[in-house]
Amino acid sequence: MHRSLGDGGMPLLGALGLTFESYGQGWAEAAWVPTELACNPQRGVHGGVFGTIHDAAMNFAVNSALESGDRAATLEVSYQTIRPAAAADSLSVRGEVLRLAKQVGYAESAVHDAEGQLISRAAATFLLRRKAT
To answer: 64, 20 in Cβ contact below 8 A?
Structure first.
């Protein structure tokens, strides 16, 4: 998992301005300074980009909680944007596991601004592919 720090192993995330900085058992944290690529023509972060950022943070969190060789795939993501964000804003992102069952995992994530105000939140369901024992 340590190799996934930075852009999470996905150049798209780096291009959007996301940098994973730390993780632990069932959580992942990132700094996000949205680039112009993440924004619409009015320089606001595009709604779909929030979905991508949330999915990445929750997926990182879920995978950090799994045994080596196990994998997770997103089944469903739901997110809400509470406040707008713009290019060059300093944001923080945290994904966290709520529950891991045998075949399904549940996670949530949040994006906050530099003052700690909630910008966006999400919840997701993941299919867990466990290695044969």
So the answer is: no
Q: Cα separations (Å) of 85 from 29, 38, 70, 82?
A: 18, 10, 35, 10
CATH superfamily ID and name for 2-129: Hotdog Thioesterase (3.10.129.10)
In the structure encoding, which two tokens stand for residue 120, read together?
């966006």
Domain chopping of the chain, boundaries: 2-129
* DSSP code for 39: B
Over residues 1-45, the pLDDT tens digits come to: 455 566 667 899 999 999 999 999 999 999 999 999 999 999 999
Q: Which tokens sit at 86?
A: 């713009």
Kindly state the tokens that stand for 1: 């998992």
